[in-house]
Amino acid sequence: MKPLTIEEIRSATGGELVGEDTGVMVHEVSTDSRHLTQGALFIALRGDNFDGHAFLQAAVDAGAACLLVDHLPEGWDSAALPCIVVGDTLNGLQRLAYWYRRQLDIRVVGITGSNGKTSVKDFTASVLSQQFRVNATKGNLNNHIGLPLSVLSADEADQVCVWEMGMNHSGEIAPLCEICAPEFGIITNIGTAHIEFLGSRQGIAEEKSALARALPDQGTLIVTASCDYVDYLIERTHSKVIVAGNCRGAVRAEKLRLTDSGSAFDLSIDGEDSVPVEIGVCGKHMVNNALLAAAAGHALGMSAETIARGLNACVLTSGRLRRYESAGVSVIDDTYNANPDSVIAAIETLSELPVDEKSRRIVVLGMMAELGVHADREHRRVGELAAEKGLQVVSVGKAAMQINLGAKEVSQTSQHFDERDDAAQWLKEYTQSGDCVLFKGSRMAGMEQVMHQAFPQEQSIPQAS
């Protein structure tokens, strides 16, 4: 973060300074007193289950340089630390990020979409870092709190920032775009994630298209060739458009094939010679994610060879099709999150992976959240598809029972367990060397717990280089 004065923070947030401005510089912004470093601004946010104002003294003890609050507790010693009082601390955080973004000479790549945002972010950061100093979203800092914190983590040395923008309700993407002012936008796809709150795919498309509308005339929108809303998205921007996809688009993959450690293809960009690429993850959808990143590199003037080098070097955030061996069983960790589209992509990926003639492909699925009235139908649909693909289906958790019922429409071998421990024990007894097992579910399903209990010995399969 670029160092800020207390007065700059007060002015940006529109707050009132209580206490003395000692001239100290703020080097970091934090909303968590447990991880606050010396010289940070502590912002006391309010949530459904917490109030940051209860931790003001902890922030002082940890070395905070300044506090941003909506009130000061009775009896607070105003001489202890400079405090900036605002009407709403979340609004104060967002106003500070908005102002701070405009102090930096950076180019911003904004990423949204129903699936694949973090993988696209990882690929894009890896590609762009071959030629630029890059700042990218860390962890899941992509919502109305996380995005401002991501913006405030950038500094004067950064040249390109790659920031995710997530949402689960209508009207959330546009304010994030206003804060981070993207020049380049990547919309990964329009799926069914968060359909409980958006009502329909059309509603989801309208919300995601806020990124397309926010781009400047001289900006670039990057979209997926296979998305059935691609024309809808293109119609909603005045910027240049790059379409990327498997075997079609200005940036495309040709001669796609699976390898022992991932996926290989020839990267073809209009006007340039094809370049071979091998990424350390399997699946056509992951290749598509890599192509969106390649398009970002192309938009920023990078050569196909340099882009390929970045794709080859990328290591994805954990829980996204990471593979490891456990007692001869190939385990695929795709536990980070799940919605119908990402589960279908995982099922199709597993069904295409080569196994020995006597070995099995097993998919272990937990519930998918935020589907509302669509939940039963969507859980049945993925279970039925998995069985149709010839996979051994294992559903875990009471909320995942419909997966089992859908699978049993095709195959009576489907297994269901209400308890994670029982599922892990069955997997230990059922699996044998040579089998391939994929785990996936929403965060609350806790599928990583089943995975680690059943297959605790982790020895990573070498990634492509």
How would you characterize the overall build of this protein?
- By secondary structure, the protein is of the alpha/beta class.
- The strands form four sheets. A nine-stranded mixed β-sheet has the order 9-10-8-11-12-13-14-15-16, with helices on both faces. Strands 21-20-19-22-18-17-23 form a seven-stranded mixed β-sheet. Strands 2-7-6-5-4 form a five-stranded mixed β-sheet, with helices on both faces.
- The chain folds into three domains: 4-88, MurE/MurF, N-terminal domain (Udp-n-acetylmuramoylalanyl-d-glutamate--2,6- Diaminopimelate Ligase, Chain: A, domain 1, 3-Layer(aba) Sandwich); 104-313, Mur-like, catalytic domain (UDP-N-acetylmuramoyl-L-alanine:D-glutamate ligase), CATH 3.40.1190.10; 322-460, Protein-Tyrosine Phosphatase, Chain A (Alpha-Beta Complex), CATH 3.90.190.
- The protein contains 16 helices and 23 strands.
- Mean pLDDT is 92; it is low at 459-465.
- α4 (117-128) packs across α11 (304-313) and α12 (340-352) packs parallel to α13 (375-388).
